[in-house]
Amino acid sequence: MNILIINAGSSSLKYQLMDPNSGEVFAKGLCERIYIDGRLTHKVGDKKVVKEVPMPTHAEAITAVLDILVDAEHGVIKSTDEIDAVGHRVVHGGDKFADSCIIDEACIKAIEDCIPLGPLHNPANLMGIRACQAVMPKTPQVAVFDTAFHMTMDPVAYRYAIPKEYYENDSIRRYGFHGTSHKYVTRRAMALMGREDIKIINCHLGNGSSLSAVSEGKCRDTSMGLSPLAGVCMGTRSGDIDACVVQFIMNKYGMTADECLNMLNKKSGVLALSGVSSDFRDIEEAAKAGNTDCALALDKFAFDVRKYIGSYATVLGGCDCLVFTAGVGENSASMRENICRGLEFMGIKIDPVKNNIRGEEVCISTDDSKVKVWIIPTNEELMIAQDTAELVMAAK
Ligand code: AMP
After folding, report:
1. Separation of CA 150 from chain center
2. Burial per residue of 312-348, b for 16 or more beta-carbon CB atoms within 10 angstroms, e otherwise
3. Which of 49, 202, 307, 340 gets the highest tally of CB atoms within 10 A of its CB?
4. 8 A C-beta contact, residue 55 and residue 38
């Protein structure tokens, strides 16, 4: 089976053509500078080709992707008829989607209704969907939501303690993000542990970071909120912050709410604390060279993650399995070590030799550690492909 995965942003579009059963990626790439001029970077194995292709809208970007997939020189299929279905990443499903769904007009309307909740992403995701419908009208399309995995939370976890009308009229509540990644590593963790009735704390640590507390495969709490700004401090996001900080800064510096939120989303986090970079590799290097602001940024990040791990063990009433995933979680042995330092009291002991590894699916806890600690490389594209294939097969 061939599933095309589309992740459409406002001026870019990532794609992968893969087999949902084996996980084999036949081709992948990126369209950039949509609406400006248009550039396509296409990879098949180690071979890479870059082409300038006019992309006045997302439709031309999708056409360029389909053209190169069937291209005599760079293509991997003979005809677009060989694409069985398209899986679209959609960021905000609001409280309308607890699962992935086959795209029809009702689904599109519901995604449109979620635009106020995901104003930065949902319009771009919809453009990707519309463009695919226009150029491949007969191919089934599926929407896979970043928020869906977290819809099993109870009201105590998802409600904010603010007047009820904002929840009832405006759907203001915790949603959580990175759901496709949390779902993927949860499934892997249950398979690796050989049981489904386990308590898992997932740490998706990348440029954006979020944690989830999972039992019986269901999300019970997650650190991001209405938007991805909440939770632990991140590459450029502040994470949890007292709302009065926003009021103070807006008043003192004459900022609008949008300007202040832009600062909290794009100019904060470890970028602000380190004064060097939002990239953890740069910060680790500078900290090693003696930069104390960088050391603080790393310690603050580890502190926030550690604090959430402790609180999620309480939410779950214990923890059997701690999972590290995404760029930092999979690759930074020193950050994993920093986070787990001091957690021996709750049965978390990592083995420094086993921990000295990057990007492999491997258990890094000591044999006598009560909690099993795993690195599980995430694969959101595979999760999207599997959800898409499952729904399309079931609808046949
Ligand atoms: P992601 O958002 O999941 O792509 O993760 C991106 C983040 O992972 C960036 O901040 C990178 O610096 C970080 N990262 C990738 N490789 C390493 C590494 N070897 N050590 C530390 N951080 C890394």
Report:
1. 12
2. bbebbeebbbbbbbbbbbbbbbebbebbbeebeebbb
3. 202
4. yes
User: Residue 145 phi/psi, 5° resolution?
Assistant: -100, 140
Residue 377 Cβ inside 6 Å of ligand 1? The answer reads: no
Phi-psi region of 366 (alpha: psi -120 to 50; beta: other; left: phi over 0): beta
Dist. CA 149–CA 249, nearest whole Å: 35
**Ligand 1: does its nearest atom lie under 6 Å from the Cβ of 206?**
yes
**What backbone phi and psi angles, to 5 degrees, belong to 350?**
-100, 150
The single-letter DSSP state of residue 155 is: H
Q: Whole-angstrom Cα distance, residue 82 to residue 66? A: 11
Percent of the chain's residues with pLDDT above 70: 100
Active site residue 146: yes
CB atoms within 10 A of CB 356: 12
Helices 292-316 & 333-340 angle (0-180, nearest 10): 60
Distance, CA of 111 to CA of 92 (rounded, Å):
8
The Cβ of residue 295 has, within 10 Å, a number of other Cβ atoms equal to: 17
Is residue 334 in contact with ligand 1, taking CB distance under 6 Å?
no
Report which of 310, 325, 385 is spatially closest to residue 188, judged by C-alpha positions. Answer: 325
Q: How many whole angstroms from 278 Cα to the centroid of ligand 1?
A: 10
Query: How large is the angle between the packed helices 122-135 and 58-69, nearest 10 degrees?
Result: 50
Residues 25, 17 contacting (CB under 8 angstroms): yes
Please identify which of the residues 146, 221, 304, 320 carries the catalytic annotation: 146
Mind listing the pLDDT tens digit for each residue in 1-39?
Answer: 999 999 999 899 999 999 999 999 999 999 999 999 999
For the chain, what is the largest distance between any 2 Cα atoms, rounded to a whole number of angstroms? 61
Please list, in sequence order, all residues whose beta carbon lies within 8 angstroms of the beta carbon of residue 51, skipping any fewer than 6 positions away.
39, 40, 42, 64, 68
Instruction: Name the one residue in this structure whose structure tokens are 């009021």.
Output: 247
Answer for the pair 90, 5: CB distance below 8 angstroms, yes or no: no
Compute the distance from residue 279 Cα to the ligand 1 centre, in Å. Answer: 7
pTM of the model: 0.96
Taking only the tens place, the pLDDT of each residue in 137-192 is 999 999 999 999 999 999 999 999 999 999 999 999 999 999 999 999 999 999 99
* C-beta neighbour count of 390 within 10 angstroms: 13
